[in-house]
Amino acid sequence: MFAGLPELGISNGEDLKETLTNCTEPLKAIDQFQTENGILLPTLQSALPFLDLHGTPRLEFHQSVFDELRDKLMERVATIAEGKDEERYGKLEELLEKSFPLVKMPSIQSFLFIVCAVEVKRQIWQDNQALFGDEVSPLLKQYIVEKEAALFSSDLSILHNFFSPSPKARRQGEVVLKLTQMIGKNVKLYDMVLQFLRTLFLRTRNVHYCTLRAELLMSLHDLDISEICSVDPCHKFTWCLDACIREKFVDAKRARELQGFLDGVKKGQEQVLGDLSMILCDPFACNTLVLSTVRNLQELLSQDALPRDSPDLMLLLRMLSLGQGAWDMIDSQVFKEPRLELEVVTRFLPAMLSVVVDDYTFTVEQKLPSEEKTSLTYPTALPDAFNKYLQENRVACEIGLYYTLHIAKQRNKNALQRLLPALVETHNEMAFGDIFLHLLTGHLTLLSDEFGTEEFCSAVFDGFLLASFSRSVLSWVVQEITANVAFETDGNLTAQKTVPGCPPSPSCFTGN
């Protein structure tokens, strides 16, 4: 416990034992030992007896002084490390060299850990997952707080919303940069972070952990950390998808590449699907996939083609289904692509296209000369199949919600008044999720003039927003409690508490 003290000229327990063994007056020997090895301040000698009268042990007093001095020293070290002094590295190395004789003392170890270089910390972290979890957990919590702050920001418009920042700009965030620095080229630390993200995603259902999983990999890609990127089987898929997110569209060429990656998952490698599903569950990926789906459906309508005849559309639906099933897959540890319900393609999408045709027909009718107009009125009801799958199927519901956003962006008040009341009943109350409400609010800013009419206000507020208010507040409370419990009980993320997944190593390709 006291190893290293003699090297610094400080007496230790063995010295005290020898003194007491050879002395004739033990009390005087102890008093002399305290005087020689205590804090050498003349003004303190008169104060120590006062502490004795109050029953304060000398150990407690010296420990409090030690803690205070250690905190001051750490502050000074941090100041030196962040300064511009060219000799700062030399000063820190000299300080470490003086401290190394005491490396076996627990009270000194924490100080040495803090001041040592990140390269040294990586070697310590990789053999101590609990310690690494202590370092990573505050960063993960900070990341979630920042994402939620962006969702609830009052600075909101169609041009500035949650999805506005580019992927590369998002990767410049403080948390992503810190995690990237902490990991460096260490595959084992990277795997630990992925385990933490899987675990927290499973326990909180918070999709922002999926975003961080993708951002972290692409941040390492930006730095050309081939030691990690070359062994993560999700790297090329994530890289291709990242390009699609940047363009906010999945074109035919990239669709073929993405399909090749999914089809390339061989027998024995199915665990890779767990991480791929998390990457596709990322809200930024989901946003891109659904926007591409809506655009694809519009092109099919102009070509008089059926949804089931489009391979690109089938792939988009396949990836949406895989992303939506991420939580179930990781929870069950059954790594198999979820089967897309055929009737989503054969019944729901045609029903949605009929809504588009209704709107187009009415718009054309309104532009005709008065003598050519008929008594056509805008439909108020929605097809039964549209409502049914909005409530029963999560992929269909996601497409329906984004079509509503598309209509709001087009400032089509008639279609919006028709659609909003139907969103009160959706699959797992997806319409009351933070992300959808955030986007819808931004899109509604385009319709400021329409809020002057009672009919439109009734559809927006009475028909949807007031219903969403009570449910979203309840959802927010439950989500906050769940997230806080997860962080309070699992602040130390250890191997026993993490969810397994595909490790970023060659074993992913062999199934070992």
TrEMBL record:
Q: Which InterPro entries match?
A: COBRA1
Q: Which GO terms describe its biological process?
A: negative regulation of transcription elongation by RNA polymerase II
Q: Which GO terms describe its cellular component?
A: NELF complex
Q: Name one Pfam family in it.
A: COBRA1
Where do the coiled-coil regions begin and end?
none
Q: Supply the PANTHER family for this chain.
A: NEGATIVE ELONGATION FACTOR B (PTHR13503:SF3), NEGATIVE ELONGATION FACTOR COMPLEX MEMBER B (PTHR13503)
Q: What is this protein called?
A: Negative elongation factor B
